[in-house]
Amino acid sequence: MQIADNTAxxxxxxxxxxQGEVLDSSDxxxxxxxxxxxxxxxSGLEAALIGKKVGDKLNVRIEPQDAYxxxxxDMVQVISKDMFEGVDHIEVGMQFxxxxxxxxxxxxxxxxxxxxxxxxxxxxxxxxxLTFDVEIVEVRAATKEExxxxxxxxxxxxx
Length: 159
Ligand SMILES: [Zn+2]
Hints:
By secondary structure, the chain is mainly beta. It folds into two domains: 7-68 and 126-149, Chitinase A, domain 3, CATH 3.10.50.40; 73-120, Thrombin, subunit H. The chain is built from two helices and nine strands. The strands form two sheets. Strands 1, 2, 3, 4 and 9 form a five-stranded antiparallel β-sheet that branches. A four-stranded antiparallel β-sheet has the order 5-8-7-6, with no helix packed on it. The protein is elongated and about 60 Å long. The protein starts with 6 loop residues before the first strand and ends in a 10-residue tail after the last helix. Bound molecules: zinc ion. Residues 149, 151, 153, 159 line the site of zinc ion.
């Protein structure tokens, strides 16, 4: 069976950036299982996997706009220190969960100037081209329930 919309796909992968640093890998762990065609994984990788089958290997470099997006200045804002309720000490590099313009996400403190704190809500991998080394482990038809839910069931499932 080939990878197409509405298939449940298992892959092993290693993710590196342009500097050759390994950012993430399924090596030594469970394969990543996702529902193809539902936006479960970044769009560039999903597109590269179409038509592949079990045993296929691929190495694909994905531009930022098809990965975690380009860096957007709109995602950087200056807020008052008072906004950090319950945090005694704020330092550059600290990360917080916050409701940012596109929904819940992680913001990073990038600068502190008196009571003004600059936070950056860009994804940590925004602006990075990502290279995936992938091996396809399993491809099967998704069940009706999985299609209804928009994700794959089984190991690691939220149910
Ligand atoms: Zn479900």
